[in-house]
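Repro case for the chain-ordering regression, as requested:
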Amino acid sequence: MGKSSKDKRDAYYRLAKEQGWRARSAFKLLQLDEEFNLFEGVTRVVDLCAAPGSWSQVLSRILIQGQRVGRAAWEDKRYQELLRLRQADLTGDSSAPETDERPEVRPRKDVKIVAIDLQPMSPLEGITCLKADITHPSTIPLLLKALDPDYNSTSSPTEASHPVDLVLSDGAPDVTGLHDLDIYVQSQLLWAALNLALCVLKPGGTFVAKIFRGKDVDLLYAQLKIVFEDVTVAKPRSSRASSVEAFIVCTNFRPPKGFKASLDNPLGAGRKLQTDTGDVKPQRTEYSRKLREDGITELDLGSDLEEEEGEDIRWIAPFLACGDLSAFDADASHKLPEGHVSLDPIQPPTAPPYRRALEERKKMGGAYGKTKLGGLPGG
Amino acid sequence: MGHMSRIWHVRFLPSRVEEAQGVDMMSFGEDASAILWHLQTLSSSSNASTHILQQYHIDTAHAGKHIWSVAISPSGYIATGASDGAIAVRTSTFGNPPSLPLEIGSPLLGDFSGADTFKAYSFIAPSTVIATTTQGKLIVLKLQAAEIPRIWELAASLSGLRGYSVVTSLPDIGTGWAAGLDGKVYMYVHEHRRLTQVFDAGHKVAGLFAHSRQGHRAIALLVTGVGGVDPTLLLLAPAMAENVNLMPVLRRETRLALAQDFIVTSFSIITRQKGHDYAVLGSRNGDIALYDIDVAAGASVIHEHLLPKAHSKEAVTSLHWVRGDEPLASSSGLLHSTGRDGRHAVHSLHSRNGKWSAELVYCLAPPFGPNIEGVTLRPDNHIWIWGFKGKHFVAHDTTAQCEIMTVECGGAHRNWAFQPEAAGGWFVWTGKAQLYQQQQTQLPYVLINPGGHGREIKALAVSPIEKQIIATGAEDTNIKLWTFSSEEHGEFRCMQTLRKHNTGIQHLQWSRDGRYLFSSGGFEGFCIWRVRPDLPGMGAGVVCEGMHPNSGASDLRIMGFEVRERSKKHDQAGGSSEVHMAYSDSTLKRWHYEFPRKKWSLVSQGEYLTACLTHVFAPTTDFIEQWLATAATDGHVALWNGRQADREAGDELQWTHRHKVHQNAILSVATNSLPDATTLVITGGDDNGIGITRLTQSGGMDTLLMPRAHAAAVTGLIILHSSGGRLTFASAGIDQRLKLWRVTVNIEQSGIDGVEIECVKSDFTAVADVSSLTSYRLADGTKGVLVAGVGMDLWGVQA
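-- result from build under test --
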């Protein structure tokens, strides 16, 4: 397997290198944005598990540099299409609404982006990078300090004085192949990210995180639904259908009354909410049958379906596929154009887990990338 | 040495012996192996003590990857669980230390200069070896567990055996033979400790092969030469006790005329209840030849039948004849052979009026090789084969599909001898000019649960005939054939493991008569397997009939395929099938395959869009007026111009209708025809939804969608019952839920207006990462649901 075989296998891998993204996952965030308009009015963002930094790159290009990528690019495309249609039909209605004016977007003011990861990350302009463990309580003061220079750890240790609009987490464990374990560890990461988000997110804010859809994922959905008004599970087209990966997009943060976030006493760890539980239960649905615009009749058998165990704790979040259907398919094999030159990755791994092994091998006289010990010049 | 992967666990073991100097440790890896180590602390005067870590033993009880769990009892039992679902318990490690290789050494030969070494050797009786030395000595070694063997010298120095010699033996009758450069063949009978010269070939003896003919109370000995010399077959009276002077009696001497380039590497006798006996010879070029040997003495016999390239172009290392059971079929049986092509093959031989016919009924690669060296039928009717894997000698039980014994000996290129015994046996080998021995009297581990695939199952198909065979294809690249026995708590038993694909399996389909299995995977891999469901003593006979010529040509995955059979009998003239393959680059190809000629030809092809196709299927069972349909990662079902009526050879395949059902990838499909000639196409999506699409004969499609049918991707669908406008189907997803649905269709109403769905039952399955569902006929005649993913589940369904 050379690097070009990966180019064939995955169009997004190739595209990421061409467009200067550090990882193909940038497209996942862009496609999520196309559907959810994640960055509207957003200036303060926390990016968890950020390394190698492709999501921070997206934030940087949209919020700091004011580039039109993601939803904005999609809107531009739509605008161009409208223009084209109008020109094709000059006799058409001239009193068309003015709303399809090309929207103006400039670099935003007072942008604050904090990126956190356990791994070191190459710096990005305008972004505060922290090397910290999101599952550890000591990270909270670090994060709050990074968000607000006048943060005082004694007066309000776990609450941001200027909360953020958006918390992102694209974190995943080094997968082992044992799905139960991988899903469990991923759920733990999601839970840690959520607890951090609860500390810094402003009411009405948005939380986006990677989730592995597996056993009991409906329990997680139901729990997220307690603190967010809308919970959707989204799958960008750049994420393979054969992978368990999806993204949970939680909008309109609405902490229950009397709720105080704390990493020392995190959500769900034996903690009871002092609120009327009826208020936070996910809504139940009735039997319904409705014809959608696209001609498909949607059937909801009602919530009885999820309750047969007598537990009112499961809820299946609606699913939304993101990204244009005409976008590249991450599962498809692609033919490389004639004379294709495979590009080097934008950002080589900064601290891969195998670095130590490579160093040890070098010490013994072996070279990077060579398996034979000794005899060869190093480097 | 060490693991070839990440190490998941390391454990100290309870001490075996009162040894202050060291401790035993065991490590368990992602490579599914468990390694026993001894850590020794050398006494040293300074504070800095020196440690020696030595690898004692490696076992590969598990298939695939990852030893996930380990438990050690105070008494020293070590249990491991791995991705293959097996639980292995090592019993012999403590108190009874694993037997280590023992160096026998040449000083035993009474030659302290080390100039004399063991040359050729063979087992003459249990734990007894007849051996020659480079100085021409002929000796007998009585092996003893963990001790230096006792030794008898039979002959001081035979000039003909000096420098070069060959040895063979028949341990069941305690007789051995040796020969060398001068052509003199010596025979040794262990019972009487008597050595005699039985024959003089007059030329250098290249090989000696022996076989005892119990039925005829005679021994067959084949003496081969070099440089185009035809071998001589000797028939000897076996029991010398009949002779007063204890001399062997040469009954007959026959010359076997060899075909060109036939260098004998193996030999056996085909005994028959009626008619003549036959000698069967294996060649270095992969051929197997049959000779009638009940002919007049002194005659030269030409082979009567030849199985060309039975082991492609590689040496046939052993032959074993198993006579047919049935009293009437006395002239038929199974000929087992092993070869250096890495295969164990079985030919079904049949003789009528002196004419032989042969059919290859089994040819599979065991999990080691390519040097497969021997095969035998054990007293419990289990078939053992042995050979080499890297630096290890491996003995394998193909009936139980498990490893019996492994010995690290340095590899295949050496002299060695193996004597199978219950739960192991003796292995003797030459390494670094010394002789080594190792004995195993107890299996290195016991499998409490035999397990299955090393990684998750990706495809599943049950054969449509009476004795149902379950075929599973997994990410570990293997296909396994299973039977299910409903006795007691029910058990899946793996009969055969089919190794051919280089990537995970994508799809499996059986032929209607259950005699062919088709499989597809990545790298355009596509195989046709000929399956004989009830091969005596073998469970199922399997032969890879052919691979698609494009296999390995590119990195495209064949995501799905659909085989349409053009004739009832495949192997007869004109037997052919049409195979539609759906590729990951959005192309669909129609191939024509002729069974008797094993010939593939491309009929037509077409492109979908850019989305990866996931399935190709025929929505109706009507053979002539079949639509051809595909599902893809774009969530659409498409209909193609695949109907017989629209079709002309050379036409490009084109999709004519495209209909959106899911938001993204369609992962599972099931279809059901309704009485009004419309069809329900049920689809499961990555979007958690199940779509029910009613397809009319003109290609109209209307969909009823349950967007939240599961909490995660719906990966398996199967229709269990259908009659009139009512049907029951099951669905499963990676949320590990198995659901049962009832659909009623009011035929009077068009589209999906008259379609009602009800979820009848929902349950958790222990199978993670479910990839496929199918129905399985249970012993009581009802239909069960087979769920496959990480492991397999069989569910009964109550009406």
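Ordering looks correct now. DSSP finds no helices and 64 strands in chain B.
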